[in-house]
Amino acid sequence: MSRFRISITRRSEPGRWFAAGTVCAAIGFGFVLAGCLFALGGVNPLTAIARIIMGSFGSLYGLKETLTKSIPLILCSSGLILAFRARFWNIGAEGQLLAGAVGATFIALRSDGIPGSLVIPAMFVAGAVCGAFWAWIPGILRFRLGVNEVISTLMLNYIIAEFVQYLVYGPWKGSQQFGFPYTDNFHADAVLTTFPGSRIHLVTLGIALICAALVWMVMHHTTFGFSVRAAGESSGAARYAGIHAGRVTVAAVAIGGAMAGLAGVGEVAGIHHHLSYPWSISSGYGYTAIIAAWLARLNPLTAILSSIFLSGILVGGDTIQTAMNLPAATVNVFNGAILFSLIGSEFFMSYRIRIQPKVVP
Amino acid sequence: MDHLMIESILTRAVAAATPLLFAATGEIVSERSGVLNLGVEGMMAVGAVTGFAVATATGNLGLAVGAAALAAMAVSAIHGFISVALLGNQVVSGLALTMFGLGLSGLIGKPFIGRSAPVRFMPVDSSILSDLPILGSVMFEQDPLCYLAFGMALLTWVFIYHTRWGISLRAAGEHPLACESMGHSVVLIRWLATLFGGACAGLAGAYLSLAYSASWIEGMTAGRGWIVIALTIFAAWNPLRAAWGACLFGGVYVLQYVLQNKGIAPNILMMLPYVTTLLVLVLGATKRNRRRFNSPVALGEAFHREMR
User: Fold this and answer.
1) Hey, which residues 300-329 in chain A have their CB within 8 Å of chain B?
2) Which helix (H) or strand (E) holds A352?
3) Which of A124, A49, A26 is nearest to A326 (CA)?
4) What is the pLDDT of residues B248-284, one digit of tens each?
5) Fewest CB within 10 angstroms: A72, A345, B244, B254, which?
6) A327 interaction partners in chain B (CB closer than 8 Å)
7) Which chain A residue's Cα is nearest to B274?
8) In chain B, what residues touch A346 (CB-CB under 8 Å)?
9) H-helix or E-strand containing B152?
10) Looking at the predicted structure, is the pLDDT value of residue B291 above 60?
């Protein structure tokens, strides 16, 4: 017989500082969890973690790379927040990013007939349209036919990844790439300018920050944002309020997909200057963005910070990969551990735990 | 196409179906109890690498398969802890499990890349039976794990529909409160179901690295875990339907190789399993059929005894 009784009661929305503290504790716990696994694998966890942090935030080169990789993360996570707020589990930002890259490449490879200054805008529009289309498919499948969006978005990720490979091995294979499966390098008009001495493509960075701010504005200060949240939190109540939950959600998901598409444009036009293997165009940005969105508790402005943080882990992961000869998937251990402890920590934010002595009758 | 060709296609289709069926059986049990585990891909990867590592170290296949099941069960316990004990979001926890499992398998598997297993599962030798026309080799020339998969699916079907415990399992997923008032512990049922699902996914992984390809490469699960989730829905949470659904998907995997020398780009063929998955979900979800495809009512919902 235990003499104590543990009672669990629901608490109201946690205060801002309590939430922030819990998130930080969760990140710390995630690091400890990942560190234990490194130790089990015979890698000194302290060295690994120190190298990750030094590699990403500890040097000028690292900082520049961190900022570069945060661009697609900010765009994807802002877009995902729109979908997640509507309780639509879009796991397909990765595929929507690739769709955007394909759209941009299509324009870039046919840029001869377009005036020079219009090539880049046309690429961004094409990328956004393709990303939105790739997100619209699972949206419409869910609301017309009830198809589970987690699976459909994932399948579409795999399909577009194979499609990109088909393009670069087949019809779009460049004639000047020495047999490598790349498209020809983009014309100078189709290339984004970068911050001198870095790979930071400023235009996309600007677009990313604007998108994050716009999502925040829309979510909190417009009827559309209210409808999205209502559709997510209670579709029944939304229907009584005259909100067409399906239509609103599909729109939100497609807009989110467009943002992922923009990220894809940035990657091909700002970094690679051609289309190549899907895994080099996006090193799992679409999946990492899910963590960024969750870490930010679905607030797009906080998502800017969480994107930079997770981008640091990506960059640091590259560092330990080369310096300590670890496999590329190691970063996934970190990401998984952090995400686990984040969801676990939500328990402490939504419930109050009391341990009381049992009253003996 | 002659007889021998059809025979070999069908034989390979059943082999390709085996890992899907293992994992789908586990996922069906887990989801029947109300726990949605989207981490199948990660658990499979952990099982695959553990099985391969133990086989390399000990040369004992039985030990390797057992270790694979245990390792995958151990990572599924993280999902169980978050979704059953901490009442957390099961979708996100499952995604985390996928990332975590894939990462962990890469970390463990680094020394084994490019090596071939010293031991592997071979088709059983039953020369008289396998000489039967067409279905002879399909049914009697598979490896032991394959028979285990189909046997487990059958036993699980009996368990779910024809035993008292099966009723409690379904009650936990359909109406947890009613289940509690019948005197069963929903928490315990969900824990056991989640662990069983993990072990099954581990067996699926072991099949990949010890029978199907007898090697280990990072990402060798290649989306099979997600196809399993789709298969679970397609099978309407019934292990026997999952068995023939798995064979259907297995056939699609083999079709890739059959069509390879017909002049179709390999990457287009690689899309086949994923496109089939989408099509199957779309066809399965038409309005007329929706009732039959109803999922367990409390699937993905946290349950705590004190909050009714």
Assistant:
1) 326-329
2) strand A351-357
3) A49
4) 999 888 888 888 777 788 888 889 889 988 988 888 7
5) B244
6) 106-107, 109-110, 218
7) A155
8) 86, 88-89
9) helix B144-162
10) no
The arithmetic mean of pLDDT across residues B152-167, rounded, is 94
Q: Fill in the amino acid letter for B97.
A: L
Q: Which of B92, B107, B223 sits opposite A333 (nearest CB)?
A: B107
Q: Record the tokens describing residue A226, joined without a space.
A: 């209210």
Q: Flag whether pLDDT at B308 surpasses 50.
A: no
Does A334 sit within 8 Å of B103, measured CB to CB? yes
Structure tokens at A68: 């570069």
Residue whose tokens read 């459909």: A152
User: Which of B27, B91, B100 is the best mutation test for A, with the most CBs of A within 10 A?
Assistant: B100
Helix ranges restricted to H, chain B: 3-32, 40-58, 61-80, 90-109, 127-130, 135-140, 144-162, 164-174, 176-181, 186-207, 224-234, 239-258, 266-270, 272-284
A287 contacts on B by Cβ (under 8 Å) = 95, 99
* Residue with token string 């099966």: B166
Domains in chain B, ordered, with CATH? 3-289 (1.10.3470)
pTM of the model: 0.88
Q: State the Rg of chain B over Cα.
A: 19
**Looking at this predicted complex, what is its ipTM?**
0.87
Distance from the Cα of A126 to chain B's closest Cα (Å) equals: 23
pLDDT tens per residue across span B168-204: 999 999 888 888 888 889 999 999 999 999 999 999 9
Q: Which chain A residues are within 8 Å of B102, Cβ to Cβ?
A: 329, 332
**Which ranges of chain A have pLDDT less than 50?**
1
Quote the pLDDT of residue B89.
87
Two structure tokens written together for B222? 């290649």
Which residue does chain A place closest to B94, by CA atoms? A340
Characterize B234-260 residue by residue with b for buried, 16 or more Cβ atoms within 10 angstroms of its Cβ, and e for exposed: bbbbbbbbbbebbbebbbbbbbbeeee
Binary contact (A340, B96; C-beta < 8 A): yes
